Structures are given as structure tokens and as C-alpha cells.
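Protein folding task:
====================
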Amino acid sequence: MAPFNTLLLLLLLIHLTTAARAIGINYGTVADNLPPPSTVAAFIRHHTTIDMVKIFDSNTDIIKAFAYTNISLTITVPNDGVLALAKPSAAAPWLAANVLRHLPATKIRRIVVGNEILSTRNKTLIAHLLPAMKSIHSALQSAGTTAGEIQVSTPHSLSKISTSGAPSSGRFRHGYDRIIFAPILEFHRQTKSPFMICPYPYFGFTGKTLNYALFQPNGAVLDEGTNLNYSNMFDAQIDAVYSAMTRLGYGDVDIVVAETGWPSAGDSALQPHATLQNARSYNSNLLKHLNSGVGTPLMPNRTFETYIFSLFNENLKPNIQEQNFGLFRPDFRPVYDIGVLRSPQRKFPCSPADGRLQMLLRRSRMGEILKRHGACQRVMK
């Protein structure tokens, strides 16, 4: 086959495999009616486009369930385990028991230390956060090549970041900026790991900004500091964090969205906007926005690794709202569809005008392969 034809086919394959970027999911287990981890892992692998999973502990059964699935797993050191792991002598045994024995079968991509620790206001816990991150990172480096590639981070809520004004004015709260955030960001720069945040437009909108929070048509918001327009709150929150990082000199550190989501139900009197329609709107529009690759006004064309909260509705959470952030019910029925389910009927479309492309496919075995895997509805007809 001519080089041009081969190149065209390669470009087609790249397009087919990257047309929809995969989304990550938070797999919480605060429930008494969830299926076993092995069933969950098989469902995610075979029936969804999700290829990144984050869990809130280091549950052995869950980690084993994702072995040989090629799904990237992020595991968590719970908040109550942080103090002990701040001691270097404790990090290596913890790593051996919770991580190393699962490698390389399970693709553990990242270890997060605690969850939104700065929001706990526990001074002792906050003081031991970075030492624990450093201890785990050092233990990983000492463990060998595969373990050494695992990143270490910690998720932050936006409570210690000023995001209510213009995104360009975002800054870390005074007292936290230089003393806490700067050293953490320096750790991320040195270890090439991401700064992880949990932006929730659901907790930041007002009655007048609901459409803005849901990625729905709105009048947009002008940041007079940059003269940039914002059409959604998610971008504004991300850029406020980026501005805060840049203000400290760490704009080069990657950002990962550790959690974001919208509840599909709540107390009708206290949480009237926690509805199935709004949850579907937020998460489906978020997915489209991420897949577009447009980035944010301050970070154009930049993609963000993002984990939706959450996989399941969790019936042991403390209230109706908290129980209803899931995309799926425990029996795997979707609470609503945002486009992450695989379907034999959901195929990649081909434009009828792609005559030359179809001719090239007919002349090569590549067309047969694409047809066999349902990659294009009109190819080889």
C-alpha cells in the first residue's frame, strides 16, 4: 500500500481510539448493598468507557479485582492512617502490604494521602500530611522501577482557595499559601506529580447561576482582570486554582480533578436543585466539555484528568443528597446516562462523503478489522 494510504489509515485509527477521552470515576463503598469488587471491575472493564478508577482506601479485594484489567487505579491512605505514615520507617511496610504485592498485575497509578485534609482543621494531621507524602514517595523510589513510577498526591477541597471572585484573582488563603501550599507544590514539581482538587459547582452556585454551573446557555461571566469570558463555573474554579498556583510560582504543576459531581436527589425543601435532570445535565455536559479538548480560558487546549463522583449511589451516607451522587444503582442500572456505557449499537459514524476513505478501507485488511470490531457503521458496505 502506498505510504499516503497507510498514513491515512493510521490517522483514522488514532481518531477512532481517541474520539472520546475516557473519564475517571470515584468508587466509594459506603453502602451495604453493593456487588462484589470482582463484578464491579468486570462491569467497568467490559461495559463502560471508564479506564481510571479512584478508591478511598487500599482495600485488598478491590485492588485484586482490577488485576489484568488495564484500568488505572488510584488508592488512598485514609485520614486516620496519615500520622503513622509520616514516619519513614512505617512507609515501607505499608507499601509492601498494600501496593507492592499487587504489582504489576494491578495498574496502580497513584497513591493519594488522605482526603481533603486541610479542610479538617486538624493541625496535627495537616502538619503530618507532607511528611507522609514524602515518606511514601521515598519508599516507592526504593522499591524499584515499577513502584517508582507511582505518583503521590493528596486531594484538596476549594475551601482554602479564594474562588468566589474573578478566576484571575484566585489565591490560596493567607496563612496557608506560603506555609502549607507552597511546600506541597514544590513536592509536586520535584516528583512530577499533580496537584489534585475537588471542584464542585453544585456547592458554589446561586439561584441566578444555575445554568452557569450546569454548562447550559447563559450570559457568560467576564473576568475583567484578563478580559476572558467564562461560560461555566467548572472552568472558572479550575482557573482560580491555576491563578493561585501561579501566584506562588507553580503554574507548571499539573492539575487533576480528583472529584466533581452533582446529586440526583436530595431534600426537596433544602436541596431543590439536587435533581436527576440537573445531575444528568452537569455530568453529561462536563464529559462533552472534557472531550472537546478546549481546556479553560487561562489554559486553552489543556486536558484534565477528571474523576466523577461517584460510581454508585451509597445508601449508608448520612443524608439523601450524599446518598445520590452515583451514576449507577447497585444492580448496575444507570441512574441516568451520560454516555459512558458501551453498546453494540453505539458505533463510530462515518460520513457518507468519505468516499476515498471507504475505498482505501475496502482495499486493505484494515477495513475488515474495523468492520469486525464495529468501528464504523458504513465501512465495507
